[in-house]
Specification:
- The protein has 2 helices and 5 strands; from the N terminus they run H-E-E-E-H-E-E.
- The chain is α+β, with helices and mostly antiparallel strands.
- It has a single domain, classed as HIT-like (HIT family, subunit A).
- It has a 5-stranded antiparallel β-sheet, covered by helices on one side.
- The mean pLDDT is 91.
Length: 112
């Protein structure tokens, strides 16, 4: 179920444009519009989940797919090293309340 007020749900529905890197039935990967590294993608589940705390036990497969997508992106970049960041909750720096992983590569990012 999608949230009609969520920017990521709007991107998934194609009502807001984004640079799509790849997608599957359950995940979309887009370029971050404010990159913190030469390669900065957002790995987003198509199912609206607010944050890590909102994942259910039944979302185990989806959670695994998100991590495996990072592995796939690294392979597409020539097995490049990367950083995977998840902010879960406002106090942790989450700004868009739809679960997403930041995939950062191309240089060491220390100020994220």
């Amino acid at each position: 179920m999608n949230d009609t007020n969520c920017i990521f749900c709007k991107i998934i529905a194609r009502s807001i444009p984004a640079t799509i890197i790849t997608e599957t039935d359950s995940i979309i990967v887009i370029k971050d519009i404010f990159p913190k590294a030469p390669v900065h993608y957002l790995i987003i589940p198509k199912k609206h989940v607010q944050d890590v705390q909102s994942l259910h036990e039944t979302d185990g497969t989806l959670a695994g797919e998100l991590v495996l997508m990072a592995k796939q992106l690294s392979s597409q970049l020539g097995s490049q090293a990367f950083r995977l960041v998840v902010n879960s909750g406002a106090d942790a720096g989450q700004k868009v309340f739809h679960l997403h992983f930041h995939f950062l590569a191309g240089k060491v990012v220390t100020d994220f």
